[in-house]
Amino acid sequence: MDGAPIESGAVAIEGNQIVAVGRAADFTGPCTDLGDVALLPGLINAHCHLDYTMMRGAILRPSSFTAWVQRINALKRSLDDDDYLASIAQGFAELRQWGTTGVCNIEAFPELMARLGPPPIRTWSFYEMIDIRHRSTTDEMVAGALAFFTEREDPLALFGLSPHAPFTASASLYQLANACADALQMPLTTHVAESREELLMFRDASGPLYDFLASLQRPMSDCGYHPPFAHLWLQGAINARWLLAHMNELTEEDFGILAGLPRGGGPSLVHCPGSHRYFGHTPFPFHRLHALGLNICLGTDSLASTRSLSLFEEMRTLRATEPWITPEHALQTVTVNPARALRRTRQLGAIVPGALADLIAVPVTGSVPHVHEEIVEHRHPIAWVMINGQIRP
Hints:
CATH topology: TIM Barrel
CATH class: Alpha Beta
Strand order of the largest sheet: 3-12-13-14
Radius of gyration: 21 Å
Largest sheet: 4 strands, antiparallel
Distance between the termini: 24 Å
CATH superfamily: Metal-dependent hydrolases
Number of domains: 1
């Protein structure tokens, strides 16, 4: 992802870093021949909820986004910590199976952090923050929350903050997240403009989501003015360093704000094609956002709203709805683009000297002009994966 494909190429690795890239004939010394494969950067899932891996197929397509929220909340109440720990482990295994070597995982239950072992892939655990109403606090929850902010020796265990969404997190909570990120150099992510009902709530002070949250005694004085993205941006709750998941329902006011930002200086966006298809949202404005120079990544979201944690499937779903996107462009959304969003350009998402050795091998026929298309169309588990310089089973 740092230039044209290299036929009969080789990569030299020392420790956990790539130190040289070129043609195999130019290298000396011992070499591992992987056969007829494309060696490429490990894929990065920019938005995932591993807590809900066990919910695959558990919620039939709902009549509304609000109905889905109510259903998943009911399911969550029926599960305990051991269920969620098993779900996370299952999710990690599925991500690894499909060549994902890095994931932005939204962790809804901070108390689980104290019981999670070292992650098997490079993982940014984003502490989900909600203050829609008072949440009871336990010693276990406090210990889990503090685990996000302790020094970690494992290079694969990273962290960030995620105020859930403007309808569940107050502006003051977003500002708190910004202050913490400044102090601790953490990435930030949030859900925004995910559904038509969220748009109706903030712009028009109406709709099923507005009524549902009002019934929970959420203060609704911030509704009736701006659409969700503009609502957050205009009050400084979010800025260019954020990863904004979804951004499905945007208005001309939103596009006006985005168009006024310096090219390449806006926030990064995360599109989840499978989840988008499941909900039947308004068509995602990929072309218009791309034309504004915004950095767009792909994520899977959770298995409560999609059928697979495979980024290969997400790329194919994207191209089915956006046929103008080339296979190479699709691959950028799961390699160099999320690396840029995480401030890891040329450290992840590309095979270049100095990058971390997160690599996967995808079987191909050897036709260099069609290699990007062969990769995107790959439909089998990935047998060879290297993470941080170590080959993983």
